[in-house]
Each structure stands twice: as C-alpha cells, then as structure tokens.
C-alpha cells in the first residue's frame, strides 16, 4: 500500500465453509473447486491480471480476501439454508463429488439429490458482508 492510502474495505465478503471432518487434501480440493466458480457468476470480484518486474503475465485473481471457515455437518446445512433464503451467491460441494472424476458426473451427482438432502462438505457464499456473516453464524475461522 502506498504511503497515505487508506486500506481497501470491500462491501462484499467471499467465504468458504468446510465441514470439520475432512482430510487436509479434501479441504484444499473443496476450497479450490468452490472458489473457481465465483468469477463466472460475479465477474466484478476478479481483479486485473498480474505481471512481474520482467513483464511475465499471470492470471487475474479474486481481488478480495477469501475467508475460510469450518463447522459441523449441521452448521453447513444451516448456513446453506440461510444463504439461499437471503439470495446469496452460493456454490456447493457434496460428499458424492469425491467419487466422481469429471464435471459432467459432478453436476449429475448434485442434480440427483434434493436441496435439503445434500450431504454438504463445502459451501461458498458471496454477498453483502453482514448478510454473509448472518448466514455463517455458528461457523468458526478455519485453523
């Protein structure tokens, strides 16, 4: 940050909620999958491309922090219900997706289960800060 510039405060929040019984590799995989969908739904969260001092170009990334939380299966179910009732942008990752190997089968696995019966292991939520905070009530920061 340049001298004298105020820190950037975003009006929205990007949060990932992970089930607390996942293996480390699963947590990383679920987080990557969930965050990957946000830019297509909310393109304004994507910043400008990066470039190093040698003019090597790199991809643009989400321009604001992604906060990662954890909670029980019940916490995920409650957060999912609250996020949908508040019309927040969401992405889901269910336990069934660990057994599939491609996007087509992933989408079919989610489509095969009703909203209230999804076995959620991860949830991405994006929207106004306070609304996201209310949807994630009961979750704790991932440690």
Helix-strand blueprint:
Blueprint: E1 12-19, H1 24-36, H2 38-41, E2 50-51, E3 57-58, E4 66-71, H3 73-85, E5 89-94, H4 103-111, E6 120-128, H5 129-135, E7 140-141
Parallel strand pairs: 1-4
Antiparallel strand pairs: 1-6, 2-3, 4-7, 5-6
Individual helix count: 5
Number of strands: 7
The parts where pLDDT drops under 50 for at least 5 residues are none
Distance between the termini: 27 Å
Helix content: 25-40%
Bin the strand percentage.
15-25%
Mean pLDDT: 94
Q: Major β-sheet, in short?
A: 5 strands, mixed
User: How are helices and strands ordered from N to C?
Assistant: EHHEEEHEHEHE
Keywords for this structure?
5 helices; single chain; 5-stranded mixed sheet; 143 residues; two-stranded antiparallel sheet
Q: Describe it for me?
A:
Helix content is about 30%, strand content about 25%. With about 140 residues, it is of the alpha+beta class. It has a 5-stranded mixed β-sheet, sandwiched between helices. The protein is globular and about 50 Å long.
Quick description:
By secondary structure, the chain is an alpha+beta fold. The chain contains 5 helices and 7 strands.
């Amino acid at each position: 940050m340049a001298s004298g510039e105020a820190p950037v405060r975003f009006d929205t929040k990007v949060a990932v909620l992970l089930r607390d019984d996942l293996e480390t590799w699963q947590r990383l995989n679920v987080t990557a999958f969930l965050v990957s969908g946000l830019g297509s739904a909310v393109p304004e969260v994507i910043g400008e491309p990066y470039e190093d001092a040698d003019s090597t170009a790199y991809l643009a990334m989400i321009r604001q922090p992604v906060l990662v939380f954890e909670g029980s299966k019940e916490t995920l179910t409650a957060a999912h219900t609250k996020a949908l009732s508040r019309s927040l942008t969401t992405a889901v990752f269910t336990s069934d997706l660990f057994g599939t190997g491609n996007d087509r089968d992933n989408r079919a696995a989610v489509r095969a289960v009703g909203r209230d019966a999804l076995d959620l292991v991860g949830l991405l939520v994006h929207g106004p800060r306070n609304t996201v905070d209310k949807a994630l009530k009961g979750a704790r920061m991932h440690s």
